[in-house]
Amino acid sequence: MSIFNELKSSLEEAVEINQGKKLASRVTKYDVANVKALRATLDVSQQELADALGTSVDTIKSWENKRRNPTGLAAKVLATIQDNPNYFHDLAAH
């Protein structure tokens, strides 16, 4: 099968899934961390959390106000901190 035919087939399958005619073979979902609650549990400021994660205070505020959700590595690190709050202190030390 040519790459064009593979792409065409994949796109047709995506359309069928989107239209509800077919179920996706795999669905990946991540729980979005409640950053405000997590920060309260850790008893740290927005600045301290931002410094530990290497991001801005504005990003922390956006996550806390649900304007944006943490994605990628940030989401994984927050999930790790949520599961093991002591990890934050290790992270903040570096």
Defining traits:
94 residues, mainly alpha, 434 Repressor (Amino-terminal Domain), 63% helix
Structure in words:
The structure is a single chain. The chain has 94 residues and is mainly alpha-helical. The chain has a domain at 35-92: Orthogonal Bundle (434 Repressor (Amino-terminal Domain)), CATH 1.10.260. It is built from 6 helices and no strands. It has helices at 3-18, 35-42, 46-53, 57-64, 72-83, 86-92. The longest helix is centred in the first third of the chain and has 16 residues, at 3-18. The N and C termini lie far apart (50 Å).
Put the structure in a nutshell:
The protein has 94 residues and is mostly helical. 63% of the residues lie in helices and 0% in strands. The protein has a domain at 35-92: lambda repressor-like DNA-binding domains (434 Repressor (Amino-terminal Domain)).
How are the secondary structure elements laid out?
Layout: H1 3-18, H2 35-42, H3 46-53, H4 57-64, H5 72-83, H6 86-92
Helix pairs in contact: 3-4
